[in-house]
Amino acid sequence: MDIKNNLQFLPKSMVGSDIMQMRVTDTAHDRGIPEQEVPESTALNFSELFNRALMKVNDQQVDAERLTQKMITDPSSVEMHTVTIAAEKARMAITFTKTIADLAIKTYRDLINLR
Questions:
Q1: 3-state class of 11 per DSSP?
Q2: Is 51 left (phi over 0), alpha (psi -120 to 50) or beta?
Q3: In the chain, domain spans
Q4: 66 and 87 in contact (C-beta within 8 Å)?
Q5: Whole-number Å distance between alpha carbons of 34 and 78
């Protein structure tokens, strides 16, 4: 018995790289919702979204640093609470980013060790 041939559940025409088109086989599951096309660039969209999020975190850090330097060089040009708020936003963004990265690495290691 060839296990490899028995594991092919779907025809190759339904599976394209990591994107698989789902279809309704029972009309009770349809609920009148039309099928949506899955874009081929789903992975690219996630990558772009992730990069934009990291750029926003970086921009917040740069903005906080700029305001801090401005407060030191010209204290009358910027309010103290503005600097404090910008620094706290940057700190929170970096903390959340680090937490998400740590969880992603932990999840990856857990998946690798499932063997």
A1: coil
A2: alpha
A3: 3-112
A4: no
A5: 54
Distance CA 61, CA 89 (A): 8
96/99 Cα distance (integer angstroms): 5
| Per-residue confidence in pLDDT tens, the chain, 115 aa | 444 444 445 555 554 555 555 665 666 666 666 666 666 666 567 778 888 889 999 999 999 999 999 999 999 999 999 999 999 999 999 999 999 989 989 999 999 988 7
For helices 80-112 and 42-73, the axis angle rounded to 10 degrees is 150
Side-chain half-sphere exposure of 46, counting CA atoms within 13 A: 4
Asked whether the beta carbons of 73 and 95 are under 8 A apart, the reply is no
Find tokens 């980013």 and name the residue: 97
SS3 label, residue 23:
coil
The phi and psi torsions of 105 (rounded to 5 degrees) equal -65, -40
pTM (2 d.p.): 0.57
Exposure of 63 in the CB half-sphere (CA atoms within 13 A): 17
